[in-house]
Amino acid sequence: NNNNSNVEQAILAIAQVLQESPISIQTNPYQFSAYLSGSQSTSAGAYANILFDTELYDLNGNFDAVTNKGRYTAPVTGYYLFNAAVNLTASGTTQVAMKLKKNGATDIGVLAGSISTTAASSGIGSEFGGTKLVYLTAGDYVYCQVYCNGTITIATGSNPGYFEGFLISKG
């Protein structure tokens, strides 16, 4: 299974980074978790920023939930692990993708692609997301985008829609 292979590769990469420059999660101030407080609809055929606007926590104040909703700015150079997921319902959709974007221009990885449009179109909703290990330089910022060739509505609340991340190694 390709998903298992990607997860295994991510785990091996994380293990390597942690061996080189470990950071304790208990003392790591560079972590956040946020969610979308109200539903968000998107237009067909274009990527849209996911406007995560409510913080569960932001230990160092680097997540922007107000001005540039859904944006995390790296305070130090290093490897960061980001997780994101949304619960969505779709209309006329056969293709959906979710990605991380860096500094407004660079695609740094697809978090998820293609869902069961039968489930999404029926109004049941589908959880959609993934995890990405990313190297950022201090001052770089990242955010999530979603694409569909139909229209989607992103559901609200902290479960299962979220964007979170933390520094795993400086350098």
Description:
14% of the residues lie in helices and 47% in strands. The protein has two helices and 13 strands. The protein has helices at 2-20, 117-121, and strands at 31-35, 40-41, 48-49, 54-58, 63-64, 71-73, 78-91, 96-102, 106-113, 126-136, 141-148, 151-154, 162-170. Residues 119-124 have low confidence and may be disordered. With 171 residues, it is mostly beta strands.
In short:
This protein is mostly beta strands and 171 residues long. It is built from two helices and 13 strands, in the order αβββββββββαββββ. It is 14% helix and 47% strand.
SSE topology sketch:
Layout: H1 2-20, E1 31-35, E2 40-41, E3 48-49, E4 54-58, E5 63-64, E6 71-73, E7 78-91, E8 96-102, E9 106-113, H2 117-121, E10 126-136, E11 141-148, E12 151-154, E13 162-170
Antiparallel strand pairs: 1-4, 1-13, 2-12, 3-11, 5-6, 6-11, 7-10, 7-12, 7-13, 8-9, 8-11
- Residues in helix, %: 10-25%
The secondary structure category is mainly beta
Q: N- to C-terminal separation?
A: 32 Å
> What is the count of DSSP helices, taking H or I runs of 4+ residues?
2
Query: What sequence of helices (H) and strands (E) makes up the elements?
Result: HEEEEEEEEEHEEEE
Query: In this structure, how is the largest beta sheet organized?
Result: 7 strands, antiparallel
Overall pLDDT level: 80
Strand residues, percent: over 45%
Mass-distribution shape:
globular
In the predicted model, the low-confidence regions spanning at least 5 consecutive residues are 119-124
Task: Tell me the number of strands.
Answer: 13
Rounded to an integer in angstroms, the radius of gyration calculated over CA atoms is 16 Å
